[in-house]
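User: My advisor asked me to double-check a structure prediction for HTH-type transcriptional regulator TrpI before group meeting. I don't want to rely on an old file, so could you generate it fresh from this sequence?
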Amino acid sequence: MNRVLPPLNALRAFEAAGRLGSFKDAAAELHVTQGAVSQSVRLLEDWLGAALFERHNRRVVLTPAASAYLADVGPLFEQLSQATARFGFPVSATRTLSVNASATFTLRWLVPRLEGLRARYPGIEVQVETSNRPVESLRTAYDVVIRGGPDTLYGYSTHVFLREERVPVCSPALLQRLPLQTPEDLRQHTLLHTSSLPRLWSDWLASARIPTLKPAAAVVFDHFYLTLQAAIDGVGIAIGPVALVSSDLEAGRLVIPFAQPRLKSRSYCAYVPADKAADETISLFCAWLREEGSLSGPTLR
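Assistant: Sure, here is a fresh prediction for HTH-type transcriptional regulator TrpI from the sequence you gave:
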């Protein structure tokens, strides 16, 4: 059989650069210089007789034809890796997954659990970047993007792993100073807000049937994790996501003064690019997320 195969090292550089959207990131993954990646891509372009990337300052964008080519080529490398592993050859001691998630979720839920992931799967390492940008607007390709949902996104599979509800939370010391018997007692307290989530308290107060309640004071933070930390420090009362403060509730750093009402919230979902759906390492990571989520999420009713 006369197979028509491109230069495989050049194809590997193209796959990494196309998947990551960066010659620099591809060089880091392949443990070569950025110049070597650029040279390999140029070699493949010469062999194919067509441009593969459009250069835009410090980033590169696949041409439409190259994007279609990558969709076919990318899974082949994963299949080759898995076939070699099944044969019994130790392909690599570790595999690094690139994950993008919000800062609050990363700090309060994911980071505390990464040591458990490492202990269970020593061959999986996680490189996390934080962002709140919509999945479709991310300029870098990631193995897993964690956002609210579930949403149906073109080119991604959706994996719900953590349910969420929101309730008032505060430090036990604060309640000792100013007890809360009923929601109306919030008039004596400072309510903590996050500028990016301006309706949390108004929605909760409306659900509690006291929409016109005026608190003693209000403090606004620009990041949600700062709002939660202020609640732990006794500055005031925040509307907290149950799953993200579960460890604080268990440790007694926070308490829930009112069991009801609870605001329904979007679940946390792992969005995986369609061309990585068969990746066994990513599947293991998503399964681990679901297992951890079942242990820390609120009870569903």
